[in-house]
# Entry
Amino acid sequence: MSVNDILIGIAFGISSGTIIGYYVSKYRVKTSTKPVQIKQPQIKPQTISAEESKTAKQELKTLLLEKDLLSNAITRVFELEVQGQVTKEERDSLVKKYKDRLQEVDKKLDDIELIIEVSELEHLRNELVTLLTRKIEEVDKKLEKALVRLDTQKLRGPIQVQEKIAAQQTTTSTPKVEKKSQRVLESSVDRELRQYREEILKALEKLEQIELEEG
# Structure
């Protein structure tokens, strides 16, 4: 064997190894890739306890009733003056008394409504966090399984391409039969994603409704 034959053999071996290494690295399963860690929102402890929130709502009803009664009382005083049953001085005294009390009620209402608002928003936030966390976990599990199948598909890719080309070559001589267009059916993946979106949107709509009511 001559020196030229040896050099040609070495060159052929190096080139073959390079080509094989390229395809192996291209289609191998990437097990060393680390998933990106995303910090998820956590459930926060309630600033307002459930008992405090319940008490505040009961007091809110009482204050709203008292405010309505005071407003009616002021209106009634003016009616009595027109009917001649109270004097102007008595009217002014009663109206001032009721208006002073009405201001106190309004101040208490502001405080009570703030407590209820904080309680409702905290509760809604934790509901959203729970919902989103559960859905993210479900999606992550499905994504992990899908990635495994994708890596397996990449390994089978070159073989499947060759099989498809061979199948196409064998069927080129056969006449094509036109198929009637079929109704596109919703896949299980699309259906699950749609359900996830609907649940999240419902929770967001609930939050938006609260904001509109407060506005």
Observations:
- Residues 10 and 16 are 10 Å apart (CA to CA).
